């Protein structure tokens, strides 16, 4: 499958190794993974250099075969019961002030991995004492699994729609647009004060009107935070990029999102779901504090 060359605005200089080497050493020592590495994120070295990382729990192998994703597909390993403790210890050693926890999809597990998410949140709070965001799969619509993660009290519950409904069959086989919206609505219903977040990739063949409708759908279920980024094919075997979206269009989509009532928006060619997560949450908290009467 032929892939188009990168647009000129998608070239960036990598930072010097510096802090990135320290992050790698801590991760290796703790036998931990990051989604930055597994998903070939274009911001990986930049984030590592700032001493931040998004932890990937429940092993490296995903049970689904989404055609946009670089995470390996295969037979998952047994759940590592000590992983949440090692994750929390690594967060402390790295001096992080905000931790994002995500995972591969584990349809093989009865709870989809919800207990491991919950334990990770609790351990990070107990051992590192910092803010925590979870980025979960859809748990195959098991709302009791969503409830278990919510009960651990993350600051932000993130679940990505990824694309517009028309493209789900091609981009996210095994997933459901409606189910993903219902998950975010379920979180809002169980914990009204908990911030909810979602993200979209563009450049997969969607239209602007489809993006507008998807943003409206997210707001209809109370989604607070939005990320919008450019899809980049991880390899020739993945879905090709249909279009490289110019930076100006990202600005326009961000303006539309703000107008719909999102409380925090990050949009741009290199934006990824967990990029700048701590700063987005800090903005949310500041907004919430300013709304409280003196």
Under the CATH scheme, which architecture would be assigned?
Alpha-Beta Barrel
Q: Fraction of residues in helices?
A: 25-40%
Helix and strand content put the structural class at: alpha/beta
| Biggest sheet descriptor | 8 strands, mixed
What does this 3D model show about the protein?
- It contains 11 helices and 8 strands.
- Helix 4 links the parallel strand 2 (54-57) and strand 3 (98-103).
- The model is unreliable at 290-294 (pLDDT under 50).
- The radius of gyration is 18 Å and the shape is globular.
- With 294 residues, the chain is of the alpha/beta class.
- Strands 1-2-3-4-5-6-7-8 form an 8-stranded mixed sheet, sandwiched between helices.
- It has a single domain (13-284), classed as Alpha-Beta Barrel (TIM Barrel), CATH 3.20.20.
Summed up, what is this model?
With 294 residues, the protein is an alpha/beta fold. The protein has helices at 18-29, 35-38, 44-49, 83-94, 114-127, 143-151, 168-171, 177-190, 208-220, 247-260, 277-290, and strands at 33-34, 54-57, 98-103, 131-135, 156-158, 195-202, 225-230, 264-267.
Characteristic terms for this protein:
single chain, 294 residues, alpha/beta, TIM Barrel, eight-stranded mixed sheet, 11 helices, 13% strand, globular, disordered C terminus
Q: What is the element layout, followed by pairings?
A:
Layout: H1 18-29, E1 33-34, H2 35-38, H3 44-49, E2 54-57, H4 83-94, E3 98-103, H5 114-127, E4 131-135, H6 143-151, E5 156-158, H7 168-171, H8 177-190, E6 195-202, H9 208-220, E7 225-230, H10 247-260, E8 264-267, H11 277-290
Parallel strand pairs: 2-3, 3-4, 4-5, 5-6, 6-7, 7-8
Antiparallel strand pairs: 1-2
């Amino acid at each position: 499958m032929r892939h188009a060359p990168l647009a000129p605005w998608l070239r960036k200089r990598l930072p010097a190794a510096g802090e990135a080497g320290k992050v790698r050493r801590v991760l290796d020592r703790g036998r931990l993974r990051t989604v930055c590495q597994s998903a070939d994120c274009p911001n990986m070295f930049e984030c590592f250099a700032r001493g931040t990382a998004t932890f990937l729990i429940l092993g490296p192998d995903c049970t689904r075969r989404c055609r946009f994703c670089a995470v390996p597909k295969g037979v998952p390993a047994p759940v590592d019961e000590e992983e949440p403790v090692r994750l929390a210890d690594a967060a402390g050693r790295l001096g992080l002030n905000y931790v994002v926890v995500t995972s591969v999809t584990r349809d093989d597990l009865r709870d989809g991995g919800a207990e491991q998410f919950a334990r990770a949140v609790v351990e990070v709070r107990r051992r590192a004492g910092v803010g925590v965001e979870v980025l979960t799969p859809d748990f195959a619509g098991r709302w009791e699994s969503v409830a278990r993660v919510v009960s651990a009290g993350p600051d932000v519950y993130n679940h990505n729609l990824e694309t517009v409904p028309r493209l789900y069959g091609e981009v996210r086989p095994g997933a459901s647009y409606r189910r993903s919206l219902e998950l975010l609505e379920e979180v809002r219903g169980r914990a009204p004060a908990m911030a909810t977040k979602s993200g979209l990739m563009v450049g997969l063949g969607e239209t602007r009107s489809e993006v507008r409708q998807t943003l409206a759908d997210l707001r209809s279920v109370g989604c607070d935070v939005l990320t919008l980024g450019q899809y980049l094919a991880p390899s020739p075997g993945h879905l090709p990029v249909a279009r490289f979206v110019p930076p100006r269009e990202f600005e326009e989509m961000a303006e539309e999102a703000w107008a719909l009532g999102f409380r925090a928006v990050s949009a741009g060619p290199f934006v990824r779901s967990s990029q700048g997560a701590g700063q987005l949450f800090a903005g949310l908290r500041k907004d919430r504090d300013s709304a409280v009467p003196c």
